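Justification of resources, computational component.

The compute hours requested in this renewal are based largely on the per-chain cost of generating structure records like the one below. Each record pairs the submitted sequence with a full structure-token output. That output is archived, and it is also reused by downstream analysis tasks.
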Amino acid sequence: MREATTPPGVGPDAGGARGRGRRLGLAVVTGDSMLPGLRSGDRLLVVHGGRVSPGRLVVARFPDGTVAVKRAVERRTARDGSPAWWLLSDNPDRGVDSRHRGPVRESEVLAVVRARLWPMPRLV
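The structure output for this chain reads:
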């Protein structure tokens, strides 16, 4: 189950080469793993290259390729020794997170969520 999607043209490669700074993007939530704060269909404003800190919502790619919105809990180390984040669902009974897949490499944390744009705009 995909839990977040980034529309074409707004991802980390939109508008130029990687590493050229922060870029805004959009993500669409699917699934119930972030209830009650986020619901399926919510549109999120994200910052690619944004600073991750404990408690922030992020868009990340798990090792199996699943892209999901999760809460960054703490820094960890991946199996290969690279920096990583422990990511959890706000609704622990739904969805898949680091409890199932292990820490996510920092390089696979694609964006930091800044706000919900739709249906009711608010900072997150």
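The chain has a mean pLDDT of 87. The longest strand covers residues 67-77.
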